[in-house]
Amino acid sequence: MAKHPSGGRRGRGVGGPLLGRNEINTEIVDRYGRTLLLWAAQNMQGWIVRRLLQRNDVNPNAVDRHGQAALSVAAREGHEEVVRLLLGGRGVNRNIADKYGKRALSLAVEKGHLGVVKILLEHGLVNRVTEYTYCSHYCMY
Questions:
Q1: How many angstroms separate the first and last alpha carbons of the chain?
Q2: Please, which residues have CB within 8 angstroms of residue 117's CB and are 6 or more apart in sequence?
Q3: Total tally of structural domains belonging to the chain
Q4: Which of 28, 64, 70, 112 fits a 20 to 30 Å CA distance from 83?
Q5: pLDDT tens column, 42-71
Q6: Cα separation, 78 vs 98, whole angstroms
Q7: Domain with 117 in it: what CATH number?
Q8: Would you put residue 114 in left (φ > 0), alpha (ψ -120 to 50) or beta?
Q9: What is the model's pTM?
Q10: Is residue 55, in this structure, part of any structural domain at all?
Q11: pLDDT > 60? residue 72
Q12: Residue 53 is part of which domain span?
């Protein structure tokens, strides 16, 4: 098992016990409008995403200042494990468009993250003609 930067094993360092405590406010945002879930999705912290999705007080559809939710952020960054966790999460809206009209699938295609594109297509995320056309033109699957 990989070591976590806190010195412990993943999910067992300082953050593991803290994320299980109800008095921790997980909806505080940073200067970019990111909640803890958005930060974890962007930084490929699957163990944090998993713990946060188990909590009832976490909004899995919170968006940053660009209007991107955790699924879009993880897709844009190419984090396959996090994308899978979010797709299996309770209440995750799979079709949130950011303020530029882009969804998770479009962002993954633009960045060339074919593994993420495949995962999203397997979960039926093609729901718009433009995304389907765009993806069929640029993706080989």
A1: 32
A2: 105, 108, 109, 135, 139, 141
A3: 1
A4: 28
A5: 999 999 999 999 999 999 999 999 999 999
A6: 17
A7: 1.25.40.20
A8: alpha
A9: 0.78
A10: yes
A11: yes
A12: 15-138
